Backbone:
């Protein structure tokens, strides 16, 4: 039996506190806790000790090949734990073969958010989930840092039925903390990230992980930067990219929990369970929209001590982006609801008889004889995930609407920052930094330094306004000096700008003052 080298301060073993001995056949166990909270430690040690005493076996299910390899590396051959991929079960079910769960008493679903978060591109996760939930003679354990959608579904749909049979759902939850995130920033243009890295993370031993929303983006960056490693799944659809994956380096990374180059460009193939224990990882960049997947990506870095921290930069989404996505998700849900309540005919009434629009929630199934025939069904996990996504986006926008009302009531300006505010609250970060804005402020400060103490009359004020480049909620350029001063104050810039009358009759050289009686702007700078 292998004892993990990391034991967290607040861990799952202490939370369960020996209650695993009370779990009964048919029970369901839900473990909600963040990365590095000891979920794997509990399974590989305490649960396996119990399995030894009971002379039974454990099936540990994972969702990624790299995570599978990492677990195989950590678990000894003589262990009672067998590691398997969810996809292996799904492939057998698709071939009309039942997966044999009978050798196992404990079915451990690690990274169990897989069932819902992967449902957007995996039509089969619903099949393995229902097969596991349908088991009567095993103890089923679902573990995740971001499993709230699945856990709510299990509680709502199975609690009463389990109670009638004398079983129960055991729930263990440890709040997720984000103390080791040194800073949280956002970006809109990747050029600003490259500039940010050049300025802030230019030391030879500064390592950076970039989680790309598309394999093409990760590949392009790998080709651009020499000192980098490219990782993607070995799916057949990624065939043209696989020759650029250095298998030896990936294998070394799995064994050593670290990579040796400056950059790691990866898709979400590394988003779950995979550990990277390297203090030199200073920055994680992620452009994944799904919040739960983003949290999993951030969780790939495991921290060695309280001084080991990481900076996080996320791709920002404007309120317009959120509204567009909300409409898209709601449209898919409306179609799914029409199908659920009225079948294909009702669905066709909504989308049109000859519509070729796709809906990832409604799937076509191949029949058991291998021939493709339309056999439409609604995927439960896709439907659940779509509802969760819709509700989360609505929550973002609703909170932002309330904040903007408060801003206007207190003399401030509305802002399209729903996504940034939501994520910063989620990660318990008070300061929101938009990298482009930061660079803009640095450029503005450099400009203001050149005009400190100089009188700026009407003909020169246009340039000042353009340098500030302040726009309202509708994108209109703000020109009033009070708005410029408000910007300096709200962003805590050490400058002030005011308007004053020029009452001088003569200039210092004795000549007449051509600006007498006119108003001018004056910029001052605070010391310290």
Residues:
């Amino acid at each position: 039996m292998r004892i993990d080298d990391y034991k967290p301060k607040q861990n799952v073993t202490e939370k369960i506190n020996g209650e695993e001995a009370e779990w009964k056949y048919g029970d369901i166990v839900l473990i909600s806790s963040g990365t590095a909270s000891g979920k794997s430690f509990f399974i590989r040690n305490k649960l396996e000790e119990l399995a030894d005493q009971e002379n039974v076996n454990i099936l540990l299910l994972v969702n990624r090949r790299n995570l599978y390899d990492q677990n195989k590396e950590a678990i000894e051959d003589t262990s009672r734990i067998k590691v398997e991929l969810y996809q292996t079960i799904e492939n057998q079910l698709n071939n009309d073969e039942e997966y044999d769960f009978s050798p196992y008493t404990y079915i451990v679903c690690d990274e169990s958010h897989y069932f819902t978060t992967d449902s957007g591109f995996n039509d089969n996760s619903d099949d393995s989930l229902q097969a596991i939930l349908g088991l009567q003679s095993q103890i089923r354990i679902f573990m995740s840092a971001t499993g709230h959608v699945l856990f709510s579904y299990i509680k709502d749909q199975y609690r009463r039925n389990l109670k009638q049979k004398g079983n129960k759902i055991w729930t263990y939850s440890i709040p997720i903390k984000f103390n080791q995130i040194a800073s949280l920033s956002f970006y809109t243009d990747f050029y600003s990230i490259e500039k940010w890295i050049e300025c802030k993370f230019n030391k030879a031993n500064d390592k950076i992980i970039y989680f790309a929303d598309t394999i093409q983006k990760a590949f392009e960056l790998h080709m651009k930067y020499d000192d980098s490693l490219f990782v993607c799944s070995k799916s057949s659809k990624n065939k043209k990219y696989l020759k650029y994956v250095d298998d030896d380096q990936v294998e070394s990374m799995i064994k050593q929990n670290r990579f040796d180059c400056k950059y790691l460009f990866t898709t979400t193939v590394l988003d779950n369970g995979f550990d990277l224990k390297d203090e030199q990882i200073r920055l994680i960049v992620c452009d994944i929209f799904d919040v739960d997947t983003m949290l999993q990506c951030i969780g790939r870095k495991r921290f060695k001590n309280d001084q080991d921290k990481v900076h996080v930069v996320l791709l920002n989404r404007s309120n317009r982006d959120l509204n567009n996505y909300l409409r898209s998700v709601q449209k898919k849900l409306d179609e799914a609801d029409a199908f659920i309540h009225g079948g294909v005919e009702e669905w066709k009434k909504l989308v049109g008889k000859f519509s070729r629009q796709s809906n990832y929630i409604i799937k076509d199934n191949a029949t058991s004889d291998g021939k493709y025939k339309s056999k439409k069904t609604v995927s439960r996990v896709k439907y659940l995930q779509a509802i969760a996504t819709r509700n989360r986006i609505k929550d973002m926008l609703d909170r932002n609407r309330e904040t903007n009302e408060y801003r206007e009531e207190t003399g401030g300006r509305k802002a399209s920052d729903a996504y940034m505010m939501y994520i910063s609250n989620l990660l318990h970060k008070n300061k929101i930094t938009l990298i482009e804005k930061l660079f803009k402020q640095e450029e503005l400060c450099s400009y203001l330094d050149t005009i400190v103490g100089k009188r700026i009359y009407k003909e020169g004020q246009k340039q000042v306004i353009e340098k500030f480049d302040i726009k309202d909620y509708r994108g209109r350029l703000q020109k009033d000096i009070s708005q410029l001063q408000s910007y300096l104050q709200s962003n805590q810039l050490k400058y002030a700008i005011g308007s004053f009358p020029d009452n001088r009759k003569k200039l210092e050289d004795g000549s007449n003052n051509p600006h007498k009686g006119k108003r001018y702007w004056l910029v001052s700078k605070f010391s310290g």
